[in-house]
Amino acid sequence: MINIDRVDHIGIRVADLDRAEAFYKLFGFETLRAADNDAVVVMKNRQDVEINIIFNANNNNDNNNILMDVPDKYPGFTHVAFRVESIAATVAALHENNIEITQGPVAFGHDGHVSVFLRDPDRNTLELRGRAEDLSALGGVEQYEPKN
Protein backbone atom coordinates (compact mmCIF):
# COMPACT_ATOMS: atom_id res chain seq x y z
CA MET A 1 0.00 0.00 0.00
CA ILE A 2 1.13 3.55 -0.75
CA ASN A 3 0.15 5.91 2.06
CA ILE A 4 -0.96 9.31 0.73
CA ASP A 5 -0.50 12.00 3.38
CA ARG A 6 -2.39 14.88 1.71
CA VAL A 7 -3.03 16.55 -1.63
CA ASP A 8 0.19 18.29 -2.67
CA HIS A 9 -1.15 20.58 -5.40
CA ILE A 10 -3.76 20.86 -8.12
CA GLY A 11 -2.81 21.47 -11.77
CA ILE A 12 -5.21 23.69 -13.71
CA ARG A 13 -4.76 24.09 -17.48
CA VAL A 14 -5.61 27.54 -18.83
CA ALA A 15 -5.30 29.48 -22.09
CA ASP A 16 -4.38 32.92 -20.69
CA LEU A 17 -1.96 33.16 -17.76
CA ASP A 18 -2.69 36.78 -16.81
CA ARG A 19 -6.46 36.17 -16.79
CA ALA A 20 -6.06 33.01 -14.69
CA GLU A 21 -3.72 34.66 -12.17
CA ALA A 22 -6.14 37.56 -11.73
CA PHE A 23 -9.05 35.15 -11.20
CA TYR A 24 -7.31 32.92 -8.66
CA LYS A 25 -5.97 35.94 -6.75
CA LEU A 26 -9.63 36.65 -5.90
CA PHE A 27 -9.49 33.42 -3.87
CA GLY A 28 -6.37 34.42 -1.95
CA PHE A 29 -3.78 32.71 -4.17
CA GLU A 30 -0.50 34.53 -4.75
CA THR A 31 2.07 33.78 -7.42
CA LEU A 32 5.22 32.25 -5.94
CA ARG A 33 7.26 31.45 -9.01
CA ALA A 34 7.22 30.44 -12.64
CA ALA A 35 8.88 27.19 -13.66
CA ASP A 36 12.02 27.82 -15.66
CA ASN A 37 11.54 24.74 -17.81
CA ASP A 38 7.78 24.55 -18.42
CA ALA A 39 4.61 26.63 -18.94
CA VAL A 40 3.73 26.46 -15.22
CA VAL A 41 3.19 29.10 -12.55
CA VAL A 42 2.97 28.04 -8.90
CA MET A 43 0.41 29.84 -6.69
CA LYS A 44 -0.38 29.33 -2.99
CA ASN A 45 -2.75 30.82 -0.46
CA ARG A 46 -2.18 31.56 3.25
CA GLN A 47 -3.46 28.09 4.20
CA ASP A 48 -0.71 26.53 2.05
CA VAL A 49 -3.10 25.27 -0.65
CA GLU A 50 -1.08 25.09 -3.86
CA ILE A 51 -2.31 25.30 -7.43
CA ASN A 52 -0.17 25.04 -10.54
CA ILE A 53 -1.44 27.17 -13.42
CA ILE A 54 -0.47 25.34 -16.61
CA PHE A 55 -0.78 27.92 -19.35
CA ASN A 56 -0.57 25.87 -22.53
CA ALA A 57 -4.21 25.23 -23.48
CA ASN A 58 -4.45 25.39 -27.26
CA ASN A 59 -8.11 24.49 -27.84
CA ASN A 60 -11.03 26.14 -26.06
CA ASN A 61 -13.48 23.43 -27.25
CA ASP A 62 -15.96 26.13 -28.29
CA ASN A 63 -15.88 27.44 -24.69
CA ASN A 64 -17.07 24.10 -23.28
CA ASN A 65 -15.49 22.03 -20.54
CA ILE A 66 -15.02 18.63 -22.22
CA LEU A 67 -15.72 16.78 -18.95
CA MET A 68 -18.76 18.78 -17.87
CA ASP A 69 -20.49 20.48 -20.80
CA VAL A 70 -20.83 17.85 -23.51
CA PRO A 71 -23.29 14.95 -23.67
CA ASP A 72 -20.54 12.29 -23.88
CA LYS A 73 -19.07 11.50 -20.46
CA TYR A 74 -15.29 11.13 -20.69
CA PRO A 75 -13.16 9.84 -17.81
CA GLY A 76 -11.18 12.46 -15.94
CA PHE A 77 -11.22 14.85 -13.01
CA THR A 78 -14.42 16.87 -13.21
CA HIS A 79 -13.81 19.48 -10.51
CA VAL A 80 -11.83 20.49 -7.47
CA ALA A 81 -13.55 21.29 -4.17
CA PHE A 82 -12.12 23.91 -1.82
CA ARG A 83 -13.34 24.23 1.78
CA VAL A 84 -14.56 27.71 2.76
CA GLU A 85 -15.38 29.15 6.15
CA SER A 86 -18.82 30.50 5.22
CA ILE A 87 -21.05 29.81 2.22
CA ALA A 88 -23.02 33.03 2.84
CA ALA A 89 -19.83 35.14 2.84
CA THR A 90 -18.54 33.20 -0.19
CA VAL A 91 -21.74 33.88 -2.16
CA ALA A 92 -21.52 37.58 -1.26
CA ALA A 93 -17.89 37.76 -2.41
CA LEU A 94 -18.70 35.94 -5.66
CA HIS A 95 -21.50 38.44 -6.38
CA GLU A 96 -19.22 41.40 -5.53
CA ASN A 97 -16.70 40.12 -8.07
CA ASN A 98 -19.30 39.30 -10.75
CA ILE A 99 -18.51 35.59 -10.64
CA GLU A 100 -21.49 33.50 -11.71
CA ILE A 101 -22.62 30.65 -9.49
CA THR A 102 -23.52 27.79 -11.82
CA GLN A 103 -25.12 25.62 -9.12
CA GLY A 104 -26.09 26.09 -5.50
CA PRO A 105 -26.20 26.61 -2.70
CA VAL A 106 -26.80 22.87 -2.78
CA ALA A 107 -26.60 20.04 -0.24
CA PHE A 108 -25.54 16.55 -1.29
CA GLY A 109 -27.05 14.13 1.19
CA HIS A 110 -27.41 15.07 4.84
CA ASP A 111 -23.85 15.46 6.08
CA GLY A 112 -24.19 19.13 7.04
CA HIS A 113 -22.21 20.51 4.09
CA VAL A 114 -23.39 23.01 1.49
CA SER A 115 -21.67 23.81 -1.81
CA VAL A 116 -21.69 26.35 -4.59
CA PHE A 117 -20.19 25.67 -8.00
CA LEU A 118 -18.61 28.10 -10.43
CA ARG A 119 -16.35 28.17 -13.45
CA ASP A 120 -13.00 29.85 -13.90
CA PRO A 121 -12.44 31.86 -17.12
CA ASP A 122 -11.37 28.66 -18.90
CA ARG A 123 -14.54 26.82 -17.79
CA ASN A 124 -12.74 24.65 -15.21
CA THR A 125 -15.26 23.73 -12.50
CA LEU A 126 -14.67 24.74 -8.88
CA GLU A 127 -16.74 23.69 -5.88
CA LEU A 128 -16.64 25.86 -2.77
CA ARG A 129 -17.88 23.85 0.20
CA GLY A 130 -18.72 24.85 3.74
CA ARG A 131 -20.82 23.83 6.69
CA ALA A 132 -24.57 24.38 6.60
CA GLU A 133 -25.63 27.76 7.96
CA ASP A 134 -28.71 29.98 7.73
CA LEU A 135 -28.98 30.71 4.03
CA SER A 136 -32.61 31.86 4.04
CA ALA A 137 -31.50 35.32 2.84
CA LEU A 138 -30.12 33.58 -0.27
CA GLY A 139 -33.31 31.63 -0.89
CA GLY A 140 -32.30 28.57 1.08
CA VAL A 141 -30.47 25.41 0.06
CA GLU A 142 -31.38 23.12 -2.81
CA GLN A 143 -31.25 19.39 -2.05
CA TYR A 144 -29.39 17.62 -4.85
CA GLU A 145 -31.27 14.87 -6.64
CA PRO A 146 -29.23 12.92 -9.23
CA LYS A 147 -30.47 12.89 -12.81
CA ASN A 148 -30.23 9.64 -14.73
Question: Key terms for this structure?
Answer:
2,3-Dihydroxybiphenyl 1,2-Dioxygenase, domain 1, globular, alpha/beta, 148 residues, four-stranded mixed β-sheet, 9 strands, 2 domains, five-stranded mixed β-sheet, 13% helix
Low-pLDDT runs of 5+ residues are none
N-to-C series of helices and strands: EHEEEEHEEEE
- Amount of helix: 10-25%
Here the CATH topology of the largest domain equals 2,3-Dihydroxybiphenyl 1,2-Dioxygenase, domain 1
What count of structural domains?
2
Task: Give the overall shape, derived from the CA principal axes.
Answer: globular
Ends distance: 35 Å
What does this structure look like?
By secondary structure, this protein is of the alpha/beta class. It is built from two helices and nine strands; from the N terminus they run E-H-E-E-E-E-H-E-E-E-E. A hairpin with a 5-residue loop joins strand 7 (113-119) and strand 8 (125-131). The longest helix has 10 residues, at 87-96. It is globular, with a radius of gyration of 16 Å. The model has no long low-confidence stretch (mean pLDDT 91).
Summarize the structure.
By secondary structure, this protein is an alpha/beta fold. It contains two helices and nine strands, in the order E-H-E-E-E-E-H-E-E-E-E. It has helices at residues 17-25, 87-96; strands at 10-13, 30-34, 40-44, 50-54, 80-83, 101-107, 113-119, 125-131, 142-143.
